[in-house]
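#onboarding

Welcome to the new folks! Below is a worked example of what a typical request in this channel looks like: someone posts a single protein sequence, and someone else replies with the predicted structure as tokens. Don't worry about understanding the tokens yet, we'll cover that in week two.

Example request:
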Amino acid sequence: MESRLESMHERTGCEKGVYAARDVVNLLVMRLLAGLLSLLALVLAAANLWAGGSGLNVIVVVNQNSTNSVQLGNDYCEQRGVPPQNYLRLTNWTGGAVEWSPGDFENLLLNPLLAMISARGLTNQAQFVLLSMDIPYRVADGTGQNGTTSVLFYGFKTNTAAPCLPVSCSLPDASSNSYAFSELPFCEAPPDTAATNSFLAMMLTASNVSTADLILSRGVASDSTFPTQTVYLEQTSDAARNVRFVEFDNALMESRILGDNSLVWINSDSTSFTNILGLLAGLAGLSLPINAFVSGAIGDSLTSYAGEMFESSGQTSLLAFLNAGASGSYGTIYEPCNYLQKFPNPLDYFYQERGFCLAEAYYQSVLNPYQGVMAGEPLSAPFARRGAADWSTLADGTVLTGTSALNPSFTAAATNLPLGQVDLFVDGSFVQTLTNLPPSTGNILSVTLNGFTVNYAVPADVTVASVTTGLTAALNAQTNSTQVQAFSVGDRIELQSLNVAVPGNGVTLSAESASGSAAQLTTWLTPARPAFLDTTATGYLGLLVSNALAPGDWLQLAFTITNGTPVTVAVTNLTGSTNVATLTQSLFNAVNATPALQGADGVLAANFADDTFCGIVAAEFTLYARSPGWAAAQIQVTFTASTNLLALPAGTNLLQDNLNDLRPRNHLYVSSGAFALPVSFAFDTTQFPDGWHQLTAVACEGTSVRTQTPVSRNVQIQNTALTATFASSLAGTNATLSMPLQFSVTANENNISRIELFSTGGCVGVVSNQSTAVFTAPSAMLGLGLHPFYALVTDTAGHRYQTQTVWVRLVPSFTVSISPVPLTLSWAAIPSQRYEVFATTNITGTFQPVASVTATSTVAQWPISAPGGSAAFYRVQLGP
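Example response:
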């Protein structure tokens, strides 16, 4: 979209001539887009409806040959509570952070990932993949270039022929993302072109690990903060890159119905923002201040190479958004052309406002993401509304034997967010669903529109999504009475008024739920607002002229404006030298110069484009109503031309190419579950090793958002006589990479067949046929960060015992230096870390503690008070 293609279109795809060539093929891009936005995803059945995920659902992938990648992955696990078994090390990649082949991607990442998920029993919970820096972001061969995250999402997509365009400017059918615009839990709508497991993959990266850690911490801090800052949808002066403006009105309307007015449409090239929640722009180059975004923000720019994070593309990369404080961004890694389908739709902000996490919101908003990279913190969820949980009947440390009755309880965050399912995890691994409250057969949902009531009985064996589809059909069967049309989108029903004469506040909506013939009411229906909302959109009609021009050819627009006045504007090719673009430009100018069309009930011509390209002779422009609203768009337009020219659209039309954006609108939300959800279940402890375990019960919201509410308890299981002690060689809980880190394990029996040491990523040591063992942890492999350590002891009868977990933070090694006058010890430090200073006057003697220093910066200092003028020796070690 800039200088790589030295042609009349600069760099391509993002140039309007390319854009227009596609328009000619599809007649008018506006109409193509209107159909695009109404696509519904294919619904697929799934065993576990994970969405609104947590660390339990993330697989963290690190490049073991990069200490930065390992450290960042460890930090992610710590901050997001990722279980140690959800950690995968890539051991054989040394080719940098930019590009790898499909073969290397499959052999080094995909196949090990799938094998690891299967072997560790994570199939029922692995939904997100976090790629921790220094992993290539592009997968490329002679058939195409894809973003690594998109290949993990739905496989590698090859290009197809694109006449007169770079081959990358194709839009292969197989690259369509069926999850897009679905508003469904990911497991109900995975992309139907994925050949293997599909993952919501994102890359967390930056030019250095400190910056990447900052992106991570800001994303984590954003959870459930409910920010009120502004999101700017920016229509820039860059005609090739501002094309997403046609999607703005839909996103604005959806957000306003939801009760959020933070989305703002601006016409500007500015990026000098501070403290904003989002920015959707269209510029090749931009500069953002470091405090542009608040935590949880999403921002991106439609341009060719924003995904080329560590290359010199001449364009601003997506890292500019992350470095400026955003928690997520998107960019393409290969010339995409400015196809709207290849870039995030502003509906991503609406999805985020609904409570979906960042990865869910982003992947739902890109219809063809194959050339793109998703980057940032995938779980960031500033609008997630978590419920409350209690497990007062089970205290930490409780000893459980046999089959134990356990009773956690949950309360929904709000009456429109019932809790629909509770699942049990043991030590971070999914074990079973404890309760599930789908819509109950026989429940009755009643919707009253404009005083007319439609009743719907919930059928058997349904999901929230299928209830939504069924109720939508029932509503549409009564459209003649209600004058409202319904569209099902996941768990949401979008309602549009069909009566242009009735403003939105005159279209009323109410809903009720009743148990009906069912024993329990578990199906709920919630209107977004009691009356419909009027649009702020302005109606428009796209015009296109094509074919070669001859002397005497003419164009004419006949209007009947909303006050009933007829107005005609016409131009004729009198000179014989005018091309079709010039004649169309003359008509464009004549419309804007006609006094009768300049009032509030008139029209404005805008967005003129010369579409002569690739053998096509064409030009286009758009007619806008001069006032917003559906009524103002009822101007009649008849576009005609001499027989030598093709003038589209034919016949008489209104200024409502964007009809769905013009109609008054409202939402209905379907959900299932209960608002207070006590759970009672029998926990068979004999299925697990004796010893120490963490039990986590997770309640999921009964909507498509599926926000999780967890509660955990640490318990001890004891069904056999087998026990073991586990001890660390450390005096505290911190160690440097250079310190020997040892753990001793002693079983209480001699018939031991195996002792294993586990830490981040799985087993890190094993001995056989001995009852005691001393393990030295592979600190260098584990890398900087917080790590769990525990042992699993197995006897010859197959009995197992799992020890308590010891947490150790591995920190950088440091060297102590001494400076004269005044004598001062100095060493590289971790801010907030405590260090102990020891001294002795005899190097062969015992060092005694003399001070405790808490570092306030990356360099710690301690002024020396020399004992009695004699020589002294000092040591500094990590505090506990």
